[in-house]
Amino acid sequence: MQLVSNASAQARAGSGAPILSCVDLSKVYRMGEVDVRALDGVSFELCAGEFLVLLGASGSGKSTLLNILGGLDVPSDGRVFFGSEELTLADEAELTAYRRHHVGFVFQFYNLIPSLTARENVALVTEIADDPLEPEEALGLVGLGERLEHFPTQLSGGEQQRVAIARAIAKRPSVLLCDEPTGALDFRTGILVLEVLERVNHELGTSTAIITHNAPIASVADRVVTLSDGRIQDTRRNTQRARAADLRW
Amino acid sequence: MWLTALNRKLYREAWRLRGQIVTIAIVLASGIVCFISLRGTYSSLAASQLDYYDRFRFADVFARAERAPESVARQIEALPGVAIVETRVAEEVTLPIDGMPRPAYGRVLSLPAARPPATNALFLRRGRFPESGKNDEVVLLDSFAEAHGLEPGQRVPVVVNGKRRALRVVGIVLSPEFVYSIRPGALVDDPKRHAVLWMERSARAGAFQLDGAFNDVTLKLAPGASEQAVRVGLDRILARYGGTGSVGRKDQLSHRILSQELDQLGMLSEMVPAVFLGVTAFLVNLVLGRMIRLQRPEIATLKAVGYSNREVGLHYFGLVTLVLLPGCVVGLAGGYALGRVVLELYARSFRFPVLEFHMTPGLMVVAVVVSAAAALVGALGAVRSAVRLPPAEAMQPPAPPRYRRSLIERLGLHALFGASGMMIVREVTRRPLRTLFSSFGIAGAVSLLILSHFGLDSLLGYFEGTFRREQRQDLAVVFARPVAPEVVGQLGRLPGVLTAEGIRAVPVRIVHEHRARSSVIMGLPAENTLRRLVGRGGSEVTIPADGVVLTKTLGDVLGLRIGDRPELELREGDRRTVKPVVVGFVDESIGLSIYARAGVLAALEGDLGAVSSALLTVDPRELEGVEAALRRSPHVIDVSDAAGDMQRLLDMNTSIMNVWTMISIALSGGIVLGVVYNNARIGLAARARDLASLRVLGFNIREISGILLASQAIEVLLAVPTGLWLGRVWAEAFMRGVDQETFRWAVVIAPRTYLLSAAVTVLAALVSALWVRRSLDTLDLVGVLKARE
């Protein structure tokens, strides 16, 4: 589809040009009798090959932003672009195709399919993607080459999250969107998962956005955007990216 | 205390589950509708029959003779066990009604002067009984009067002994002897062509030279008397007067057909509701089980705050009441409505003074209790697990389902399915019992459709496969008495008659060892061209020149084998007993007959080969002329067109079948809807998270619909062939339940019926699946993924 082809080309070129951008984004939820403004005039971009951390406390609007960027939700106001294509004008089928071919998601609670093995969970995506990695290759990248035939209940939380990452990257997405990927994990396992994300960004050049409330994680990013009360509070660039292995929290 | 907090919880949950509750209630209601309508029709008919027979003194034993002096009645009365004897004069007549190509066949029966008959009393529907001394007054059987629009005051033409008379109809009556009005030897009731008239005895006897004599007698037995013993005595007494062998009530034509119909109805009323109740139990278990699994924390809370196990159990049983209550109300009302329709179908053919659909309290109680039992059995397992759950354990989420590598992976077949295919395979194989029960429920629906249709298919199968090949004549002519073979020759020379063959039929009693049956031996021409013997498989049997061929069932009943020599007591001529050799069997579908070549029968009878009926093929252009000639013949008592009879039987069955088909489509559709809808709903509830994940990964609605509904598709795919097979098994069981000595039609199920059953099932499944599929459009991707598993 037209919406995505130009953007993919830019992403692959690693030009550093914006691959995802939004202008004046607002989102209002109606919760019973009151309106809750989750996003309030957010303008923001994610560049090709960039490793970005969206930092914010619970309720700051970061998940809402990520969902809108990933085509899971629509804004109340403002525009979202994938490359030069406007996502806010896309219909349901176009959004589905956008997710299918260009976005990889990683969630806090993994969302693996319990009835499928690790390999099959990844195959779920590779079977519908255009030029995917082999499931074995993707699982190898996250260090699970030996656990291909295990069902989710036979894997630890960290392993399950790594399967989820393998599933997200197997389609060679243009962007990888991670919502609190270490939120349900202990410190040691969390580091392991971050290392995997770091490696994917480095080796595949996938533009990656991680949202977290965990401030120390921000030091592994190229750029850190801090959200508060639905607005961007601060944007800073790390002159020196820390290695995930060196993190402590 | 009706609206306790716990009850409020129940109502809110019921509201949330309303789709599922409604569909289960529909299945339950369908079961009750079937039970009430079928069982109610059965018991209404049976009660009417019993009451009618009792109040109008329907006889226990029937016998005919040539001419017996009235004093013989005293001898019969003296037989031990005989309570009432009623003698009468009975004669066969024809009624040349204007506008009918062939005259109607009629029987004139005498009524005692100045008193009602002691047996087989008449119910006067309109008009009055004949007045004493008025020898042209008759009362007429209601079905014939109705078919011709005859009313009291009109005259009806009757040919008695070759003389045409116009008799005055003074009353229209019903008789317990003719609840089902059928000509002897006919396949189906034909009210237009079967008349029964009653007139005063003095008027009859004169016409038949039977003054002070009778030729027909009916008996009522004393309580506890042996029918067999009375009949042996009666036959012995009447043998001298040309008795043709007595008949017990069981074999009285109208009674036998009514009883068969009742037997079939009784069987159906037990078989059909069982399917619905089984499915109801399964669905209640499915839905309640799922609800209780989801409500573990709530059960724990209830117990933690002090609710007893009993209260928790009753709370969940409460949900069953919400299925039962509307199910029973709708079921009883629907059953009453449908029952009246079904009874009306029967009332067309079976005539009673009073026939009303009775939904007795007993019937309703049985329906409600059995349905409640089915639903409660379904609920029991689920509720027990809720009651047994210790509060501390209930606080924990249930253990996640365990998936294992199955045979499919070990065989390396999983590559064929792909990852989304494996989701489906594992879902189906992880709950094999649910898949199995669901399939079985749907198969039940398929089999009901077959059951509603196989009767007509079998009838058609018999018509096409056997009847047309067996009976090749255009007209069958029955003579009032056996005639010389030359008469057949004369018929053959009528202009337009192409061929004419004579047939001799002699009533006999066949005895072998201690077993005996009444039967008829038919003498067929050596080169039988028009009447052939055709077995159920379609094979033709030729009659050897040296013995008799028996209907296979008759051979089986008597334990006869080829080469045996049973005794045949002939009930005609000099009433001799002969012992012909059995030379073959023919596996026929109807009746118990004996066949021999005409020459063999003549030798057995010791005469020159009289004939009792003739089969004709007629040039269709000359049919009217031939029928006119037959109308004028003094020998002819009945002319029938067997193919026409058969066609009427088919037409009548088709119209009844159409009603049944509509009903069974609605009922089976209800089952399929219940099973597929509930399974899909539960599948959706249990897998919403997986499906939302797939949507996030880029699967479109069509793809996830496929994954959700594939399990249901597999169940339907398994169910259709199983149901087709089950339908056949049922149909065969049903046929076996029918009196085997009368009907043994091979079960035929037409491809059209299989197709219809499969199509209705698949269509109902599709509708239910699409109904559930709509919810996928509104699947909350973000919400589902936020929640912890």
Share of helical residues of chain B? 40-55%
User: Low-confidence parts of chain B lasting 5 or more residues at pLDDT below 50?
Assistant: none
SSE series of chain A: HEEEHEEHEHHHEHEEE
The count of strands of chain A amounts to 10
Percentage of residues in strands of chain B: 15-25%
Query: Whole-Å distance between the termini of chain A?
Result: 43 Å
**Quaternary organisation of the protein chains:** heterodimer
Side by side, the strands of the main sheet of chain A go 6-7-8-3-9-10
Rough shape of chain A? globular
CA gyration radius of chain A, whole angstroms: 17 Å
Strand content of chain A: 25-35%
Largest sheet of chain B: 10 strands, mixed
Q: Give the helix tally of chain A.
A: 7
Cα Rg of chain B: 34 Å
Please report the total strand number of chain B as a whole number: 23
Distance between the termini of chain B: 37 Å
Measured as a percent range, the helix fraction of chain A is 25-40%
How would you describe this protein?
The complex is a heterodimer of chains A (249) and B (789). Chain A has 249 residues and is α/β, with parallel strands linked by helices. Helix content of chain A is 31%, strand content 28%. Chain A contains seven helices and ten strands. In chain A, β7, α7 and β8 form a beta-alpha-beta unit. The longest helix of chain A has 18 residues, at 187-204. Chain A is globular and about 50 Å long. In chain B, 54% of the residues lie in helices and 19% in strands. Chain B is built from 22 helices and 23 strands. Chain A binds chain B through residues 63, 67, 70, 72-73, 93, 96-101, 103, 105, 107, 109, 111-117, 120-125, 127-129, 149, 151, 153, 167, 171, and chain B through 400-405, 414, 418-420, 422-423, 426-427, 430, 689-690, 692-701, 703, 781-782, 785-789.
Give a brief description:
The complex is a heterodimer of chains A (249) and B (789). Chain A is an alpha/beta fold and 249 residues long.
